[in-house]
Amino acid sequence: MKNFAFKTAWYEIIKDCTVEVKGQVFSAVMEYVMYGTLPELTGEAEIIFAFIKFDIDERADRREKRHEKNLTKQKEAATDPEAAKPSEMSANEKRTTTYLPNEKPYKGNNRASKHAQRTELIKNFQPAHLTPPL
Length: 134
What we know:
Layout: H1 8-14, H2 19-35, H3 43-79, H4 81-84, H5 91-96, H6 111-125
Helix pairs in contact: 2-3
């Protein structure tokens, strides 16, 4: 594993333990993550490590399943002739295409457009008795 995050939930488990138990658990977690070896622990440290080990293994299983799924998709794309066809418009063409102001496709992050739409809706749905006199 290239990197590793120590979950805050794990700290919640060990925060009330003695410094010795915290050190044993932390060393055991790091040894297990880095080298895959199960350390010899006893008592409280062993119980705490069992909970943390379950999380580590579950995360590794999910990562492995996701990796296998991505490999399957890549293999299917490589063998499927339909997937090899280029899309209607490449990303470069999309960036360089010029549109007239009223033809430009709506983008979800266009704040000015969203604001204009909300303002128009408010004007249309405002009751007559609330509209200011002209």
